[in-house]
Inverse folding.
């Protein structure tokens, strides 16, 4: 070990197993080491500056240098650096944050349970649904319906909900009692000649048929992101959620709204549930809850669910679920300050003001011979790259072209994330018009270079 280089890249290769990474590729190429942040920019260990067009992982809503959040963390660390919420104890910031969240979320949600990540929140939601149905004497009503292209995390149950092969392959997933229905992506999954209304009607029928096939007495809940984020920024057609919710209510199936990406202004409303008309029985949130400065997530539940859980906890002696760091006072204090900033700076209104510049700017690239669809709402969007626009033919192998685009954009000083061959865009919500223009400039240059490379490699006929 003594002859190993002391550079951060070499030490990272030597000691660090990265998530969502080809480990062998990382061994040969190394990783970008990010050293510090300034506003919507991050700076690497060599001093290179990048506009972070993905807000990290869809999460740093206030950018990378908000001093008020640093101060909130520092003051809470000095006052009470840690406490838990087990066995009828808790810390003040957890109480304040729970009250704040109940006051700003849909009115049917009355209690908050804290965790540390979106994955933990969604795992907790599943356990609560199972606990709830056991409490009601319905031990068979346990199956959870998720959707193709849905992303709900990577813990064992959450990864089972996440209906994407790269999350499940090699892990013996999904677990039992997790089933899937179709994704509301008209561009990719509509049948020939099927308009959006007919498409959503068909998805609702398929959901109802799935429930009937499995047995309504076995179906406990349906989980969905208001718009599907990591599955490709899939914006549901108008009327989709109304039709889905009608089916769920018909068969007494709970709705879990996964607001981990959509929550706290991203779609131009405080929650994606408002944007798309969801009325959830359970809501999970994370990421922008603290602008990702410290890990925290939350599960909000309706009063009927709480009452059943409370009754069962009295019968069993305890609600036997929780995390050492759940409701951490430092995380709660930072989250509270984050929510204050969103209100004081009118972040939702700012997203509404900036959204047309981002969305219209990206749609200018729709004429590219390799751009099949540009989609989005608020300050979240995506461009799907295809080999043949007319036939909507994906590139083969998948992900190669998307990765090339992301690399060319990085060379231009803009960090996007390729989801296969879909380029995701989700900048910090504090982004300005000038910074959006810089983002679009980097996107355009990377796209032009990718078009030329695709043509040279013979991957598609590029005019």
């Amino acid at each position: 070990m003594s002859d190993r280089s002391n550079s951060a890249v070499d030490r990272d290769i030597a000691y660090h197993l990265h998530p969502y990474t080809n480990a062998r590729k990382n061994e040969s190429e190394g990783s970008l080491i990010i050293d510090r942040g300034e506003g919507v920019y991050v700076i690497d260990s060599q001093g290179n500056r990048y506009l972070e067009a993905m807000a990290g992982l869809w999460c740093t809503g206030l950018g990378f240098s908000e001093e008020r959040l640093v101060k909130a963390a520092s003051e809470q660390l000095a006052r009470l650096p840690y406490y838990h919420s087990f066995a009828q104890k808790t810390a003040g910031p957890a109480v304040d944050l729970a009250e704040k969240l109940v006051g700003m979320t849909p009115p049917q949600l009355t209690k908050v349970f804290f965790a540390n990540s979106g994955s933990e929140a969604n795992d907790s939601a599943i356990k609560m649904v199972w606990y709830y149905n056991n409490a009601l004497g319905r031990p068979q009503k346990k199956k959870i319906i998720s959707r193709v292209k849905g992303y709900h995390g990577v813990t064992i149950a959450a990864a089972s909900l996440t209906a994407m092969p790269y999350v499940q392959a090699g892990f013996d997933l999904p677990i039992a009692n997790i089933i899937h229905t179709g994704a509301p992506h008209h561009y990719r999954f509509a049948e020939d000649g099927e308009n959006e209304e007919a498409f959503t009607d068909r998805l609702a029928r398929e959901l109802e048929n799935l429930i009937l096939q499995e047995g309504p007495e076995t179906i406990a809940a349906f989980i969905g992101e208001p718009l599907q984020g990591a599955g490709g920024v899939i914006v549901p057609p108008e009327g989709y959620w109304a039709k889905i919710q009608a089916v769920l209510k018909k068969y007494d199936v709970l709705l879990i709204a996964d607001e981990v990406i959509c929550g706290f202004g991203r779609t131009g409303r405080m929650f994606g549930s408002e944007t798309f008309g969801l009325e959830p029985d359970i809501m999970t949130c994370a990421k922008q809850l603290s602008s990702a400065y410290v890990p925290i997530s939350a599960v909000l539940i309706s009063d009927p669910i709480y009452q059943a859980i409370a009754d069962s906890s009295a019968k069993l002696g305890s609600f036997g679920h929780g995390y050492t760091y759940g409701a951490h006072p430092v995380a709660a204090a930072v989250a509270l300050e984050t929510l204050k900033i969103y209100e004081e700076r009118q972040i939702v209104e700012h997203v509404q003001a900036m959204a047309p510049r981002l969305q219209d700017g990206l749609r200018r690239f729709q004429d590219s011979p390799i751009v099949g669809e540009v989609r989005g709402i608020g300050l979240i969007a995506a461009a799907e790259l295809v080999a043949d626009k007319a036939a909507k033919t994906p590139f083969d192998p998948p992900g190669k072209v998307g990765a090339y685009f992301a690399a060319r954009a990085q060379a231009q000083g803009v960090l996007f994330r390729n989801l296969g061959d879909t380029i995701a865009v989700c900048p910090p919500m504090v982004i300005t018009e000038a910074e959006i223009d810089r983002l679009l400039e980097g996107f355009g240059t990377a796209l032009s270079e990718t078009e030329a490379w695709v043509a040279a490699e013979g991957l598609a006929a590029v005019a």
Observations:
- Confidence is low (pLDDT under 50) at residues 1-5.
- Residues 218 and 320 are 24 Å apart (CA to CA).
